[in-house]
Specification:
Layout: E1 2-3, H1 14-31, E2 33-35, H2 38-46, E3 50-52, E4 55-57, H3 60-67, E5 74-76, E6 85-87, E7 91-94, E8 102-105, E9 108-111, H4 114-125, H5 148-159, E10 164-165, H6 171-185, E11 194-200, E12 205-206, H7 208-219, E13 223-232, H8 240-261, E14 267-270, E15 272-276, E16 283-284, H9 288-304, E17 308-310, H10 323-339, E18 343-344, E19 350-351, E20 356-358, H11 359-375, H12 383-386, H13 388-394, H14 404-409, H15 425-430, H16 436-450, H17 458-474
Parallel strand pairs: 2-12, 7-18, 8-20, 10-11, 11-13, 13-14, 13-15, 14-17, 17-18
Antiparallel strand pairs: 1-7, 2-4, 3-4, 5-6, 8-9, 15-16, 19-20
Helix pairs in contact: 1-8, 3-8, 4-5, 5-6, 5-17, 6-7, 6-17, 7-8, 8-9, 9-10, 10-11, 11-16
C-alpha cells in the first residue's frame, strides 16, 4: 500500500463532465438497468424507483444520493495488523491477476491446479509491492466447482496474512466466505475484512448469481467493488464517452442497491474498460483507449465521491512474456497511477487477454509495480539531500564514488531491479545470455524458496478446516484439506 500524492491526469473539461452527467441521467431514466433478483426489485420499488418487470428506471437524483451514503474512504482489517488496508483518498492497494483458467509456467500452458494457486499465494505473501491476493489468481480446475470457493478462501487464510476477496457468485458461496472471515477474525465487528468484486453482466444487467453475492456482502457490511465489464464494441458502444456513461450508470445502480440493503456499506467504483479488435472480435489491451478510459474513470469517481478500482493492472493480449506484454502492461499500469486509482486489480501475472496466469510475468510485473511505486513516492528535498558537504569534499573535476555522502547511502540510494539485467555484454554472455523471461523464471523460484508460512492460531485453523470439510461434504464433494 502506498500514498500517491502526485497530481492527477484529468483529460475531461468541466463541459465534458457536464455532458457525461447528462448522458448518465438519460440512460438511467429512459433505458434503466435489469436486475434478475426479486429482492433487488422489491427494494427499488420500495425506494420509489420505476420497476417494469425486471428493469428499473432510475431517478438520477436518487442514484447520486445513494452513492453519497457510501464512505469516501474506509479501513480494512487483516489478520496481521501490519497488513491492514486504507481504501480511498491518496492510498493505492494492489492485487495480482484474477480469474484465468490456464497457467503458463516454465514454457508449459495447461489447466490451473490447486497446487499452482498455492504457489501464487506464497508469491503474494513474499511480494511487498502487492497488498492482497484477491479471490482467484487462477482457477484450480482439479477442485470440484462447488467447493472451489472454500478451498481458495482456506488457502488464502493459511498461506497469507493479508486481506483477501470472497466469492460473489452465489448466496451460499458468499455466506461461506463471510463465515470463514468471521472464524479468522473472531467476528466482523461491523468493519470490512474482505472484498467482494461484483461484475455487472454488461450491458445494463445484473444477473442473479452476482446479485446474490452483492446482497449477502452488503448485508454483512463487507467491501463491495461494483465492476462493469466493458469491452467497447462488444459490451459497450465503440466510443469512450458512451462507455463512460454506461459504466457510471451500472456502478451507481449497484452501489444504490448496496446502500438500500445497508446504508454506509463500503463501495468501490470498479472500472474494466478496454477495446475490441474490430477485425477479429478479440479483446485488445494496453492501447490508448484503455488508458484514456482509466484517466477519465478516475475523474468520474472523484466527482461521485467514491473510491475506485482500475481495470489495469498489467493487462496485455500477448501470448508470451515479450516486448508486447511489457509495453501494454506498462501503459495500463502507469495510467492507473496517473489517474489516482485506489485499488489496482490485475497487477501481476496477466497474460493472453486474461486467459492465462503466467508465473514468469508475475515476477516481471512485480518489478514494474515496484519501480512505479518508488517513482511515485514523494521526493524528499532537505539539506541532507542537497549534499553540499559532498561538493566540499570532492570539489571540481573529481568523482563521488568514495565521498562520505555516497558511502552512507550507496546500498539503498537507487532503485535496483530484481529481474532486469544491468550486466555488460561479456558478463551477460558468461552467465548464460538469459533473456527477461528466463530471469523472471529464476526470480519467482527464488522467492518461493524464501517463503515462510505466516502463523495462524491452531484452534482457528482447525475450525476453518472443519467448516470447509463439512460444507464440501454437504455439496457432495470429498476434498482433502489437512
Amino acid at each position: 500500500m502506498i500514498l500517491n500524492t502526485a497530481p492527477r491526469f484529468e483529460p475531461l473539461s468541466d463541459d465534458a463532465l457536464a455532458t457525461l452527467d447528462s448522458g448518465v441521467d438519460r440512460l438511467a431514466a429512459e433505458v434503466g438497468v435489469q436486475f434478475d433478483h426479486p429482492r433487488a426489485l422489491e427494494l427499488f420499488r420500495e425506494a420509489g424507483q420505476a420497476v417494469d418487470g425486471e428493469t428499473v428506471r432510475f431517478d438520477p437524483a436518487f442514484l447520486r444520493a445513494q452513492a453519497g451514503l457510501a464512505p469516501e474512504s474506509f479501513s480494512m482489517r487483516a489478520r496481521n495488523p501490519e497488513r491492514n488496508l486504507e481504501i480511498g483518498g491518496d492510498h493505492m492497494v494492489f492485487c495480482p491477476v484474477q480469474g484465468p483458467p490456464f497457467v503458463r509456467v516454465n514454457g508449459d500452458r495447461r489447466d490451473g491446479t490447486m497446487a499452482d494457486l498455492e504457489q501464487l499465494l506464497k508469491l503474494v505473501q513474499m511480494t511487498p509491492a502487492l497488498d492482497t491476493p484477491g479471490r482467484n489468481m487462477l482457477e484450480p480446475n482439479d477442485v470440484p466447482l462447488d467447493s472451489r470457493h472454500l478451498m481458495r478462501a482456506l488457502a488464502a487464510s493459511r498461506l497469507t496474512d493479508r486481506v483477501w476477496s470472497g466469492e460473489p457468485s452465489s448466496q451460499a458461496a458468499a455466506e461461506d466466505c463471510i463465515r470463514m472471515a468471521e472464524i479468522v477474525h473472531g467476528g466482523l465487528d461491523d468493519e470490512p475484512v474482505i472484498f467482494a468484486n461484483v461484475n455487472v453482466n454488461s450491458p445494463l444487467r445484473f444477473d442473479v448469481r452476482m446479485l446474490e453475492g452483492l446482497l449477502a456482502y452488503a448485508g454483512a457490511g463487507q467491501a463491495l467493488i461494483v465492476t462493469p465489464f466493458l469491452l467497447m464494441g462488444a459490451m459497450a458502444p465503440v466510443s469512450v464517452p458512451a462507455a463512460l456513461v454506461q459504466q457510471t450508470v451500472e456502478v451507481l445502480a449497484g452501489v444504490a442497491l448496496a446502500q438500500l440493503v445497508r446504508p454506509g456499506t463500503p463501495c468501490i467504483m470498479g472500472s474494466f474498460l478496454s477495446s475490441t479488435d474490430m477485425q477479429s472480435g478479440s479483446p485488445a489491451f494496453g492501447g490508448p483507449e484503455s488508458a484514456v478510459g482509466l484517466y477519465a474513470s478516475g475523474q468520474v469517481a472523484r466527482r461521485l465521491g467514491l473510491p475506485w478500482r482500475s481495470g489495469g493492472g498489467t493487462l496485455t493480449a500477448s501470448q508470451s512474456v515479450d516486448y508486447q506484454a511489457g509495453y501494454e502492461s506498462f501503459n495500463t499500469l502507469i495510467a492507473a497511477f496517473l489517474a489516482g486509482t485506489n485499488v489496482c486489480w490485475q497487477s501481476a501475472g496477466w497474460l493472453e487477454g486474461g486467459l492465462v496466469t503466467s508465473f514468469e510475468k508475475f515476477a516481471a510485473d512485480c518489478e514494474i509495480l515496484d519501480l512505479l511505486q518508488r517513482q511515485f513516492a514523494p521526493l524528499e528535498v532537505d539539506d541532507a539531500s542537497l549534499a553540499f558537504d559532498a561538493h566540499l569534499e570532492v570539489g571540481q573535476g573529481g568523482h563521488f564514488f568514495g565521498a562520505q555522502h555516497t558511502l552512507e547511502r550507496f546500498r539503498d540510494c537507487f532503485w535496483r531491479p530484481t529481474v532486469a539485467s544491468t550486466e555488460n555484454f561479456e558478463r551477460w554472455t558468461k552467465n548464460g545470455s538469459l533473456d527477461h523471461a528466463a530471469r523472471a523464471s529464476r526470480r519467482w523460484k527464488a522467492l518461493l524458496e524464501q517463503y515462510e508460512r505466516p502463523p495462524l492460531d491452531e484452534a482457528v485453523e482447525e475450525e476453518l478446516v472443519e467448516f470447509v470439510e463439512r460444507r464440501a461434504a454437504e455439496a457432495g464433494d470429498t476434498i482433502s484439506v489437512r
